Amino acid sequence: MTLSITLVVNGDRHDVSLQDARPTLLDVLRDRIGLTGTKKGCDRGQCGACTVLVDGRRVNACLSLALTVDGADITTIEGLATGDDLHPVQSAFVACDGFQCGYCTPGQIMSAVGLIAEGDAGTDPERIREGMSGNICRCAAYPGITAAVLDAQA
Ligand code: FES
């Protein structure tokens, strides 16, 4: 039985047919819709590379069945910039060297955008580190990431 869902991704509506209930939001975003900015790291909820916003809340796309977010408003890293103008959090990551290899960066940025939008980032570096603790950086660019979250709120 084919299942049909509708996702609104970065403001664009996508009607997606699924052969069964198993595809994750991450796989649908990358393989069906073609938005590969959202990264697959661990594929089991441990690294945060797949972070997107679902109805404004941070979600690990690898842990979310696409079927469960039918009708949701989803924001991915591709939806942040406006033309050539980076989102303030993206600009802050550039200004503060909040990355090294860059693989985790889309998830880090989406998590930072969500954290700030939740009004829970604050200006205490320890609090920011706690708020961003679901996002792992194998290069350990954490000082720059924390600085970027601070800078984006300045
Ligand atoms: Fe989803 Fe690692 S790929 S948390």
From TrEMBL:
Keywords: 2Fe-2S, Iron, Iron-sulfur, Metal-binding, Oxidoreductase
SUPFAM superfamilies: 2Fe-2S ferredoxin-like, CO dehydrogenase ISP C-domain like
Pfam families named among the record's database cross-references: Fer2, Fer2_2
InterPro entries hit by this protein: 2Fe-2S-bd (IPR002888), 2Fe-2S-bd_dom_sf (IPR036884), 2Fe-2S_ferredoxin-like_sf (IPR036010), 2Fe-2S_ferredoxin-type (IPR001041), 2Fe2S_fd_BS (IPR006058), Aldehyde_Oxdr_Iron-Sulfur (IPR052914), Beta-grasp_dom_sf (IPR012675)
Domain 2Fe-2S ferredoxin-type positions: 3-80
Species per Swiss-Prot/TrEMBL record: Salipiger aestuarii
Protein name: Xanthine dehydrogenase YagT iron-sulfur-binding subunit
GO terms of molecular function: 2 iron, 2 sulfur cluster binding; metal ion binding; oxidoreductase activity, acting on the aldehyde or oxo group of donors
Keyword Oxidoreductase appears in the UniProt entry: yes
